[in-house]
Task: structure prediction
Amino acid sequence: MTENSSSVVGRTAIEAYLDSVEQALFTAHAPRGDRIQVLQDLESQIADMLATGPQPLTEETVQSVIAKLEPPSHFAATYGSGKDPRQPWVTQITRRSLIRWPLVAALSCACLTVGCLLVLIASATSVNGPVVLFTILMLMVGCMLTPLALWKAIKQIQAQPERSRDCGLVLKSALVYCVVLPVLLMGCIIFATHGLIFVPLGLGALVYLQYLVVRRVQRHLSGILPKQPIDDATPQTAALSVGTGMSVPAT
Amino acid sequence: MPTSTQIEQWSTQLRKGLAELCVLAAVDRLGEAYGYQLVQFLTDHDGLALTESTVYPLLARLAREGQLSVTSAPSPSGPPRRYYRITAAGKRSLESMLQHWTAVGSSIKKIICYGSKQETKS
Result:
């Protein structure tokens, strides 16, 4: 087999492999210069491997050499998983120029507060459908968007310290959300249970108050009363005397 | 108990972290070498298993960063070969990496020796 014919036979497989490698590098956004250099080195390696292999070259020989090489996708591993290496900077620039998440959090928290006020007004007066719908919309936006916006705002401030002036806004929004949402939920529960929720809540509050009182009294008495003197009684006799109320002579 | 797959993954990550050091050190040691020559040199050393898919992109990046210089020369077996040589910037990077490598290796050795001493005492 002449060199020309063998190079024609093997060339198709070699070029197919090199094209696959180039496609993988292109997909991984490898720089053009890198792609060219990698392909040149690879082509040179294939030529060296073929030169040291059995002669004359056959299609099977070329295929066996290509089979020894790494899969095309492995060449792109250095450049990540196919994402644009410029993307983090692009994303940062995009985020810097567009959404100001602390402001979004504050606005959505304001929606929640306004929604609560509208609920109070609606319960006191007879309102028509659009107002009710608007109220529900405000409540839904406030309830669902605020935590997401707060999380995004925190991430944004952590990534961009120059936005630290928005920390106060985030803190206030978080506090208002933590106060308003439980009140809103309690209101819904009260409405749903026609006030019966107050019974278990009241009992729970009473038990907790009793616990606090008992603990406070115990601490107060422990502080003002003298400590019990330690006598010669053994732990067992001490335990017996305590349990039976009788004094057991020390042994 | 780590599985063999986990150990293999750890080993792969370890080799990836050392690839740049190994490539620069290999080029520095060989003086001037082409891509396949470097791949063969590195694969001859047990534990590294640096293949062409790792070495060639790394060579391209190092050349782009100016740590390696590239010259083309005719090849007896096919297309021109690209010969790599370390530059002054590459040497500085290599020295810095070797310092870190020495420090890390020393620390690990101390930790391992400390652990051995504890086992001996107990």
Q: What stands out?
A: Chain B is about 70% helix and 10% strand.
